[in-house]
Amino acid sequence: MTTSGTYLYNPSLAELSITAFGRIGVRRTEILASHMADARNAANLVLSELSNLQPNLWEVGLTSLALTLGTATYNVNAEIVMILDLYISTGSPATDRPITPVSRTEYASYPNKTQQGAPTVFWFDRLTTPTLTFWPVPDASSTYTANYYSVRQTQDANLTKGQNVEIPYRFLEAFTAALAWKLAEIYRPEMEQRMQDKAERAWRIASTQDTENVPIYVIPGMAGYYR
Q1: Cβ(177)–Cβ(206) under 8 Å?
Q2: What is the DSSP letter of 171?
Q3: Which of 6, 47, 218, 225 is most buried (CB neighbours < 10 A)?
Q4: Domain ranges, ordered by start, for the chain
Q5: What Rg do the C-alpha atoms of the chain give, in angstroms?
């Protein structure tokens, strides 16, 4: 058996756009500059939707943030969509301790928001420029570094210079099917429902594999509860 021996298949946005047009009956020879402008916008709208269908593992990264004595709130990069896990490193050599998220309502319920101590919770405020707020506020008893795994939005999709779309191999079909659906809304409304069905099927297949293959343990709490 003869095979390529390579793993380089990664079409540009232009190639994927042409494929998506072909799926709705718009042939290569019919494609104009206006078609490609619509394809670029549609591609970025698809990526916006993918950023809402989280977490996408290829967008997960680890960030370290040095905390400052008496400072509760810190800016987060605007492309961060969500915080997955956060742990605090203290002292030298560092000791890591996970802390848990709270909602806006929970944070608002704390009577003393300036109380200092070792942070035990964080509030991720999803503004246009998001922020992280810690409680208790970092004190002087140690040095604190917040390390958080976050999901960011996908990089912009552009047609210039043969640029690729920032998606892994396993999501190429899901992206192309979704792009064909978006373009059908404009050029082939009669095919929109069929393209949507195909896009949703492709997404289900891709997202099923975009997981960490690890066991889940459910451990009941056996301690007593007293009021």
Answers
A1: no
A2: G
A3: 47
A4: 13-55+155-208, 57-152
A5: 23
